[in-house]
TrEMBL record:
Residues 1-279 form the NAD(P)-binding domain. GO terms for molecular function: GDP-mannose 4,6-dehydratase activity. Its cofactor is NADP(+). Belongs to the NAD(P)-dependent epimerase/dehydratase family. GDP-mannose 4,6-dehydratase subfamily. Catalyzes the conversion of GDP-D-mannose to GDP-4-dehydro-6-deoxy-D-mannose. Pfam families: GDP_Man_Dehyd. This is GDP-mannose 4,6 dehydratase. The keyword Lyase applies.
Length: 293
């Protein structure tokens, strides 16, 4: 494996890399991918996530590789935002609720345009939330697993979250990466929703994480005054902080991956409970050897 320095905001370097490597498959996973942060870095998010995708597609075209490259675009369930139907599938209308979602919407349609205008084998994978122990520390699932691990190890007593009742369709990243690859092995370029079809709340993720370390969380209070207290010790381990709420919330996401099951023979393998346990176990191991990780 050889790594190349590049940036989605630098079209010259993208052309240079693609011309040198002459890849047969490109997976565009590059993005400013944190939804909450996109409200603070809206222009940057648009430049990287939206126009950056165009730069990469243009680089393929400039290098004369339209007929030899297969292009995968990491699309997102955040396109659905204020959901127009439940569950969401490939034909569900989009209604993004963040600068991130809006930037990804441009990326989605410019991929479709290159497919239709130039006959490029280009696909959008509309992936719902996918997690693993490698998830960034400022994403809610990893924040929970890290904090629960620290509480278990006596390194922390309490942590704060935003909207506990946000509901998401959570799967394991390794299952979803397989789906990405399968899309590029398909005979025809098509867009696919990748999801589990199961919905769980942030609150439920918290409860299952604590149960894995032998603690039962009991909820008290309402809204920003709500706390999660340990039934066994009486200690408050979870509080709510309004600063973690988004200006426009996405309350409910649930994917329908029927098309992927039928056309790609894909299905999710890792169940929600197994995912939670794997993330907490990994962080217990990490924090026990490196508390500052």
């Amino acid at each position: 494996m050889k790594l190349h320095y590049g940036d989605l905001t630098d079209s010259t370097c993208l052309v240079k890399i693609i011309n040198e490597v002459k890849p047969t498959e490109i997976y565009n996973l590059g993005a400013q991918s944190h939804v909450k942060i996109s409200f603070d870095l809206a222009e940057y998010t648009a430049d990287v996530d939206g126009v950056g995708t165009l730069r990469l597609l243009d680089a393929v075209k400039t290098c004369g590789l339209i007929n030899s490259v297969k292009f995968y675009q990491a699309s997102t369930s955040e396109l659905y935002g204020k959901v127009q139907e439940i569950p969401q599938k490939e034909t569900t209308p989009f209604y993004p609720r963040s600068p991130y979602g809006a930037a990804k919407l441009y990326a989605y349609w410019i991929v479709v345009n290159f497919r239709e205008a130039y006959n490029l084998f280009a696909v959008n994978g509309i992936l719902f939330n996918h997690e693993s122990p490698r998830r960034g520390a400022n994403f809610v699932t990893r924040k929970i697993s890290r904090s629960v691990a620290k509480i278990y190890l006596g390194q922390l007593e309490c942590f704060s979250l935003g909207n506990l009742d946000a509901k998401r369709d959570w799967g394991h990243a390794k299952d979803y990466v397989e789906a990405m690859w399968l899309m590029l092995q398909n005979d025809e370029p098509e867009d696919f929703v990748i999801a589990t079809g199961e919905v769980h709340s942030v609150r439920e993720f918290v409860e299952k994480s604590f149960l894995h370390i032998g603690k039962t969380i009991v909820w008290e209070g309402e809204n920003e005054n709500e706390v999660g207290r340990c039934k066994e010790t009486g200690k408050v381990h979870v509080t709510v902080d309004l600063k973690y709420y988004r200006p426009t919330e996405v309350d409910f996401l649930q994917g329908d991956c029927t098309k992927a099951k039928q056309k790609l023979s894909w299905k999710p393998r890792v169940a929600f409970d197994e995912l939670v346990r794997e993330m907490v176990d990994a962080d217990v191991e990490l924090m026990s050897t490196n508390p500052n990780a």
